[in-house]
């Protein structure tokens, strides 16, 4: 019975894992972000109209040309739709000059497109989560705005309102999906089996090498935990990150010990020769006697 129980449990964990991985497509996890991206494009289109209708007669020819190029770049940025995502401040409306994936906010994109990637790197490294009006003291930024015929107010207007920024979410925002029931069940089942395999396989190589099925168990469920963890790694929300780290940690441990058990070889135990031990005996009393007691070890 036990021989068939372990493969069955592993199969059930894999089925739950497959259900969870397929669930991302079934439930349309990107629909919310797609809607927010459309809203951002509308914001940038409105900003473009405002900038195009502004009286710029007071600007130099060079400033007007640079400004027109920035308006074209803003349109290009909106069309690309590679907007930054909040992965480090869940529940907070925080602007990101450059996110963990390298996606730039609108102003960072405009500055980088003009050839000032060094200025973008400096701001991202030192004040990545600041609003544009708070960055005017950054060396070079005010000069860049003036050179390109933009005001601080316009730069702040280009930066979207963070009430509808797709990367910045409130606790119950549907953009951040908590681990589904299927994922939690798969993680719990695989983690339980991984913990058992760790307890069984965390012994000397001599002891685990004689029970290969425990090694297969550790390698199998450890791999399942690793896949579960990697499927959530980088997802928004602390719940997803916690689940990912847990699954990766316990999966790596169980998998390592399982492989160790499968590759270990028990030490050969030399057979001891049979030995007969004879012990003389003597008894006192009314009838003294002598005898021999023997013990045979083999």
Give a quick precis of the structure.
The protein is mainly alpha-helical and 298 residues long. It contains eleven helices and two strands, in the order αααααααααααββ.
Distance between the termini: 34 Å
Total of DSSP H or I helical runs spanning 4+ residues:
11
What overall form do the CA principal axes indicate?
A: elongated
Give the overall average pLDDT.
76
Structural class: mainly alpha
Number of domains: 2
Number of strand elements = 2
Radius of gyration using CA atoms only:
34 Å
SSE order in H/E notation? Answer: HHHHHHHHHHHEE
Give start-end ranges of low-pLDDT stretches. Answer: 1-32, 163-176, 268-272
* Largest sheet, spatial ordering of strands: 1-2
Determine the strand fraction and express it as a percent band. Answer: 5-15%
Q: Kindly state the percentage of residues in helix.
A: 55-70%
């Amino acid at each position: 019975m036990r021989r068939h129980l372990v493969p069955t449990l592993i199969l059930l964990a894999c089925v739950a894992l497959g259900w969870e991985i397929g669930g991302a497509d079934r439930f349309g996890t990107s629909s919310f972000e797609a809607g927010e991206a459309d809203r951002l494009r509308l914001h940038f289109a409105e900003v473009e109209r405002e900038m195009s209708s502004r009286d710029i007669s007071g600007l130099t020819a060079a400033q007007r040309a640079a400004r027109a190029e920035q308006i074209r770049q803003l349109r290009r940025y909106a069309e690309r739709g590679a907007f930054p995502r909040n992965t480090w401040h869940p529940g907070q409306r925080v602007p990101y000059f450059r996110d963990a994936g390298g996606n730039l906010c609108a102003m960072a994109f405009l500055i980088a497109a003009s050839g000032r990637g060094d200025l973008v790197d400096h701001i991202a490294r030192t004040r990545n989560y600041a609003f544009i009006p708070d960055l005017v003291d950054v060396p070079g930024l005010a000069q860049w705005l003036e050179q390109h015929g933009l005001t601080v107010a316009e730069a702040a207007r280009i930066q979207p309102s963070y009430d509808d920024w797709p990367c910045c979410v409130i606790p119950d925002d549907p953009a951040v999906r908590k681990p589904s029931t299927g994922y939690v069940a798969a993680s719990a089942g695989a983690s339980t089996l991984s913990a058992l395999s760790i307890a069984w396989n965390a012994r000397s190589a001599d002891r685990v090498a004689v029970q290969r099925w425990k090694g297969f168990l550790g390698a199998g469920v450890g791999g399942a935990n690793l896949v579960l963890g990697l499927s959530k790694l980088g997802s928004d929300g602390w719940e997803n990150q916690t689940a990912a780290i847990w699954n990766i940690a316990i999966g790596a441990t169980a998998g390592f010990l399982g492989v160790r058990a499968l590759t270990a070889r028990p030490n050969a135990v030399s057979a001891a020769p049979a030995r007969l031990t004879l012990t003389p005996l003597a008894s006192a009393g009314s009838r003294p006697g002598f005898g021999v007691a023997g013990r045979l070890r083999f």
